[in-house]
Write a structure and sequence with these properties.
By secondary structure, this protein is an alpha/beta fold. The protein is built from 10 helices and 18 strands. α2 (about 25-35) packs parallel to α3 (about 55-60), α2 runs parallel beside α9 and α6 (about 115-125) packs parallel to α7. Keywords: Lyase, Pyridoxal phosphate.
Length: about 375
């Protein structure tokens, strides 16, 4: 996870305080792996995973498209060199004035999951392509995304029918099987639902063209995950099963899978203590926590690999926590984290697999701590 380039950077630059370092060579390799795994799918990088300009410029130059969640992200992708026809406004919850601004910038592809959103787009982005997000169960994902986004397949039919009636291009359907999805069959279930929407609307003469298969492609944390090639084979088999020879256009939206394993956070041990003399669990406090960029430790969903200078010596379980004056700033307590007994105050540790969803989750100045610094090399 920590490439030699990252280790050399930390050794020579000695940045002060917690920081994220991302190796662009890993991002480049990940993009190529997705291209090879799903050669017929367009790659729309999920900008929210890590919007560092260097990452966006690299991916734009490699031919990537971009999934954006706001006008600011649309502008970031365009500033990085992506033309408007390679950008999707993929958030299903948009202000009407933001849709109008995106339309003014040339964006013509929008996500919806209800008729009310369709009506906004029809008013200020006439003639645009829309795709409707279908609910999935998210089973098998470490960070499920169901309920807030999407609608049941029967409602998706109504939504896309209404889009057509209002002069929009009813372009297709989308789904998201949940972030850090390790169950290869998840896409099969979701594609089955997508096919039902396609078939129902085809009977009414509305021909959908595209399936946006979302993200969910994992990065390796403490457990091994299937390679991009395995996902590609499983998804292609599911497409063939449900759509036969009439394969739709497809989009994938990797975020975590594109940048997660490219980044490492350097952190420092601030304090090691116990809550009672006979307590057999130590508390290890780092200079970064939930509010400094590690929000995905919520409910201990994501367990990051942690490398210490004392690795190889005897370990014991500890509670891992951040530095802020907030009792929620505890990373791992339900399942304590094994760390070396010889770990001491002032030791630097590396938190691996942190290239995605860390800088963007970092609070601006909670407790006066500055946002997570980021270096892209």
């Amino acid at each position: 996870m920590a490439t030699q380039r990252i280790l050399d950077f930390l050794a020579t630059r000695r940045p002060n305080g917690p920081c994220l370092v991302v190796d662009l060579d890993v991002v480049r390799d990940n993009f190529r792996a997705f291209e090879k795994a799903l050669p017929d799918s367009k790659i729309y990088y999920a900008v929210k995973a890590n919007p560092a300009p260097e990452i966006l410029r690299l991916l734009a130059a490699m031919g990537s498209s971009f999934d954006t969640a706001s006008v600011a992200e649309v502008e970031m992708a365009m500033d990085a060199g992506a033309p408007a026809d390679r950008i999707s406004f993929g958030n299903t919850i948009k202000k009407e004035r933001d849709i109008a601004r995106a339309y003014q910038l040339g964006i013509r592809l929008y996500a919806v999951d209800c008729v009310e959103e369709v009506e906004k787009i029809a008013r200020v982005a006439p003639g645009s392509r829309v795709f409707c997000r279908v609910l999935t169960d998210g089973e098998g994902a470490e960070w499920p995304l169901s309920r807030k986004f999407g609608c049941v397949p029967a409602m998706a039919v109504d939504v896309l029918r209404h889009a057509k009636e209002l002069g929009l291009d009813a372009y297709g359907v989308s789904f998201h099987v949940g972030s850090q999805q390790t169950d290869l069959s998840a896409w099969d279930r979701a594609l089955g639902d997508a096919k039902k929407v396609f078939a129902t609307l085809a009977e009414e003469g509305i021909v959908l063209k595209m399936v946006n298969m979302g993200g969910g492609f994992p990065t390796r944390y403490l457990k091994d995950v299937p390679a991009a090639q395995a996902y590609g084979q499983a998804i292609f088999s599911a497409l063939r099963k449900h759509f036969g020879n009439a394969l739709p256009e497809t989009i994938i939206e990797p975020g975590r899978g594109m940048v997660g394993n490219a980044g490492v956070i350097k952190s420092e041990v601030v304090l090691i203590s116990k809550k009672a003399d006979n307590d057999n669990v130590r508390w290890v406090f780092l200079d970064i926590g939930k509010f400094g960029g590690l929000a995905e430790t919520m409910d201990e969903a994501i367990r990051y690999p942690i490398v210490t200078p004392r690795d190889g010596s005897q370990t014991a379980p500890c509670v891992l926590a951040g530095p802020t004056c907030d009792s929620a700033d505890v990373l791992y307590e339900k399942t304590p984290y094994p760390l070396p007994l010889s770990l001491t105050i002032g030791d630097e540790v590396l938190i691996e697999g942190t290239g995605a969803y860390t800088t963007t989750y970092s609070a601006v100045a909670f407790n006066g701590f500055e946002p997570l610094r980021s270096y892209v090399i």
